Amino acid sequence: MRGGWLVWLLGWLLLLYGAMPAMAAPPPDNKTPVLLSADSVTYDQDNGLVVAEGNVEISQGDRMVLADRVIYNERTLVVTAEGNVSLLEPSGDVLFADHVDLTDDLRNGAIENIRLLMTDRSRMAAASGQRTGGRYTEMSHAVYSPCELCPEDRTAPPLWQLKAVRVVHDQEEHTIEYKDAWMEIYGVPIFYTPYFSHPDPTVKRQSGFLSPRIGGSDDLGVSFQMPYFWVLSPQDDITFSPLFTTQQSIVPMVEYRRRMVDGEINLGGSFTVADREIEESGETHTIDNDFRGHIDSWSRFDINDNWRWGIDANRATDKTYLRLYNISDDRTLTSRLFAEGFHGRNYLTIENYAFQGMRDIDDNDQVPYISPFINYSYVGEPGNYGGYYSFDAGTMVLSRIEGRDSRRVSVGAAWTLPYTAPAGDIYKFEVGVRGDLYWVNNVRPGSDDVDPTTNTVDDVVGRVFPQVSFEWRYPFVRHSGTSHQVIEPIVGAYAGIGGGNPGTIPNEDSQGFDFDDTNLFNPNRFSGYDRVDSGQRIDYGLRWSIYGDGGGFSSIFLGQSYRIGGGHEFGLDSGIEDDFSDVVGRLQVSPNKYLDLLYRFRFDTDEMDLERNEVGLRVGPPALNLTASYARLHNNESDLGSREEIYGRLASQVTDYWSLFASTRADLEENEILSIGGGANYRDECFDIGLSVTQTHFKDDEIDPGTRFMLTVGFKNLGAVELPF
Length: 725
Prior knowledge:
The protein is 1% helix and 60% strand. The chain is an all-beta fold. Strand 36 (609-619) and strand 37 (625-633) form a beta hairpin. It is elongated, with a radius of gyration of 35 Å.
């Protein structure tokens, strides 16, 4: 509930001058003139009364008060407004009342029969209210609801409303207190509390309990969290969120935040002592009273205008802890300590990395540590003909507890000349050279095994790799009626020496190569430094697009690469192992807001087979729409291997308030359903309730397949609660 409104409205007991500090909008300046308009204004000198009657309108700044009659008593120093009193605030909120009295110093006043219509259509009413001592504003029998009233029977109670016998606003402490408050649904009381309080709208941060979180799963049972937010100072705060479960121990969670002029700190983590199940040699074992926890923290600091540094700390005691307690589903946790500098066209970064694999197949003794990882980059100013120089340098030290180690120093320079001809065709010429020096240990030449046990070598090896590239493209545009078409042929030629990848250079940062339309025209189609795209080749492709004046568009792209010589570092099933590569393409269709289709593929012209097949689809209006994706990757060189997966979600906005959905995800490679679920939701202007059920078939050590039911109940301006059953 927007609690300040329960009392804030009384601030315009300030009526003529508006000086109540709890108001969301600033009070008018005393120097701002007050404008008075009325059918008649009389002065009773004997009784000391100034009376404005008939369509009285008083305005000051952006505020306006309307009433049938306004009286100022010079002897009692009381201002009275009566008869259809209404106040329009700059925020757009409108206050209505029958009778208002206040002293001219605005320290004391009273108001009768209060009604407030807020900008979000929420409504509040109270029988009466009063302001005393210039500090306290008190309302009696207040009612609040953001729900619209029934148009057929406006006297019927709203879907839900809050009532309080007494509400007190302390403007010095900036708190609002509620005495004997309860919630009603369709006029039936369902929840009562004798007391609660919260800060008024002038307070941006204040200590107190946050909305509770209730959930549940097969692994944890019923879980409950009641976060507590503690303001330590204007610069820092801390949140305690202990997690209570019926099947596991208590999990204390904490997050500390601090903002400074030159940086910010965010420290978070959790821990517990509980039993843990592990699987060894096909058998499940239980470790009693095992300490478990995690760290999730980051900090950023500005050294000066050109330099900053930071640290990310993400670590867990074991692989399943985060998923078991529904903290995170990350496959890899990354910790980093870095510094970076920006100066003109220069950029330097110094980084240190530590990784932790969270899948059951990950062996963290073989996961690399990188310290340091340094990169420097410079891009020169364009010369007379638009050409510019670039320079890159860097070093990396990579180590493992078990397995191969490598250290690398790299230096590269290039000159690039972009050019647009008078006819509209676009050229780009680039010549560059890169040198790399490696010192490696425990490497098996020509193998990607990170922990080889035989035929390993320790070596110092280097390479120098020059490369020249030339690209040309010519977009042809044709206008036709309400659309225009673009046909763009693209050709690229790339030449470098062959044999640029000695077998003793380990491949650490250029794995997971996928040949597709996004990297076809890259001079180096590898993603990192450890592999170079050697040899000579010609790439060619054609893009056709059509754009409608209404915003719709469609496009298709086809491309292929032809190797002239060298370039044998790509493995089988990479798509470019032969002289003529597979054909890669992309089709995108989005004629209107009800259809969005993206199809990407890689086609083997020798085997006449689709090696890569990806579809993303969103189709249909809100009344019935489908979101689907399909992916088939055949023997690709990424760490995912061959896979085929499909996902679909069907949703329907049945009425203005009711919606339904159903979803499923299936692994077609293993011929099994990974998850399936569905649900229903009701949502109107003030209330939200949803029911969902999800059945999963994932299994990873302690994480077992199971079914989860969840009921979510939300009240506008109050929050939401999740209830398992």
